[in-house]
């Protein structure tokens, strides 16, 4: 059978085609990255301008000098922080996100382990029903959830902002996909040695699952930090309002002061960026290892 010489890796034509394909791929990736990062650059650049510069020095191209401030006005962040009383809202968001994250870990890890490694009647049916809840829009559950937390007397209290989000079908599914890849022989050996299910979960499964746990933690933290609609519904005073609600109020009060509005938006976004930078290696590893395969 004749061998297609043109398709052989050592031929010049093959190397040329690979180079062209790689260049096209990099071009698409760079273009996509530029489109994604441009709004953030615009936000940061204008948050460092004076009010006059936000009106007179405008450009949509980062390479244009008009895109950036003449002299960065770092005082804009101090002014936005003090005028919006961000210290209260910031700490509220930290507490809400931390409590929600701990609750998600407490429910999702054991549930994912049970669906992955334990055998019990109706396991597949229950898991299917659990996944079906992902098709229900969050807005549909707004009124039932509100009536539920109101019946418990949780309005304008921390449990209303955390407890409804401590269970997530998506996070259970994500962790189950990774737990499926852990060799069952490890758990069987531990069982022979007299270990319990909780012991196997704590000594074998969790230590082998740091990457997906970081991913779940980042996603859960981001969801809790960025929540806006639900906190607006269940809070009536600034006592437990998160930074998203405080930012919304400040944007309305700042009116035409675009530089202060964007400084406040940057402050609200900064923790998410920091958490992503810390967890990005584990997130990439988790995606590469699980592939969201069954």
| Cα-to-Cα separation, first versus last residue | 39 Å
Binned strand content: under 5%
Write the H/E string, N to C: HHHHHHHHHHHHHH
- Architecture (CATH level 2) name of the largest domain: Orthogonal Bundle
Q: Percent of residues in helical segments?
A: 55-70%
Number of helices: 14
Beta strand count: 0
CATH topology of the largest domain: MetI-like fold
Mean pLDDT metric: 86
**Class inferred from helices and paired strands:** mainly alpha
Q: Which outline best applies?
A: flat
Q: Say which CATH homologous superfamily of the largest domain is assigned.
A: MetI-like
Structural description of this entry:
There is one protein chain. The protein is mainly alpha-helical. It folds into two domains: 5-73, no CATH class; 79-290, MetI-like fold (Orthogonal Bundle), CATH 1.10.3720. The protein is built from 14 helices and no strands. The protein has helices at 12-47, 51-56, 75-83, 86-117, 123-132, 142-151, 158-162, 169-179, 184-192, 197-205, 210-226, 229-234, 243-254, 258-290. Helix 4 (86-117) packs across helix 8 (169-179), helix 4 (86-117) runs antiparallel to helix 13 and helix 11 packs antiparallel against helix 14. The model has no long low-confidence stretch (mean pLDDT 86).
């Amino acid at each position: 059978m004749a061998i297609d010489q043109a398709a052989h890796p050592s031929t010049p034509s093959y190397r040329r085609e690979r180079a062209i394909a790689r260049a096209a791929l990099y071009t698409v990736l760079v273009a996509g990255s530029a489109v994604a990062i441009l709004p953030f650059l615009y936000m940061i650049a204008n948050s460092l301008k004076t009010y006059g510069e936000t009106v007179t020095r405008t450009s949509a191209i980062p390479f244009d000098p008009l895109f950036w401030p003449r002299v960065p006005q770092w005082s804009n962040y101090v002014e936005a922080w003090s005028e919006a009383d961000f210290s209260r809202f910031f700490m509220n968001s930290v507490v809400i996100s931390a409590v929600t994250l701990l609750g998600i870990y407490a429910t999702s890890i054991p549930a994912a382990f049970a669906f992955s490694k334990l055998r019990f009647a109706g396991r597949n049916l229950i898991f299917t029903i659990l996944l079906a809840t992902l098709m229900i829009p969050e807005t549909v559950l707004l009124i039932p959830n509100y009536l539920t937390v109101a019946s418990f007397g949780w309005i304008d209290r921390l449990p209303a902002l955390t407890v409804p989000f401590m269970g997530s079908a998506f996070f259970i599914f994500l962790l189950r996909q990774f737990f499926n890849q852990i060799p069952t022989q490890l758990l069987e050996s531990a069982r022979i040695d007299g270990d319990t299910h909780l012991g196997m979960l704590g000594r074998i499964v969790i230590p082998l699952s740091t990457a997906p746990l970081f991913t779940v933690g980042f996603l859960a933290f981001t969801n809790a930090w960025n929540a806006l609609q639900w906190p607006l519904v269940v809070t009536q005073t600034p006592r437990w309002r998160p930074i998203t609600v405080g930012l919304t109020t400040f944007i309305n009060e700042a009116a035409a002061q675009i530089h202060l509005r964007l400084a406040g938006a940057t402050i609200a976004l900064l923790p998410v960026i920091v958490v992503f930078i810390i967890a990005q290696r584990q997130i990439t590893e988790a995606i590469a290892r699980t592939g969201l395969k069954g």
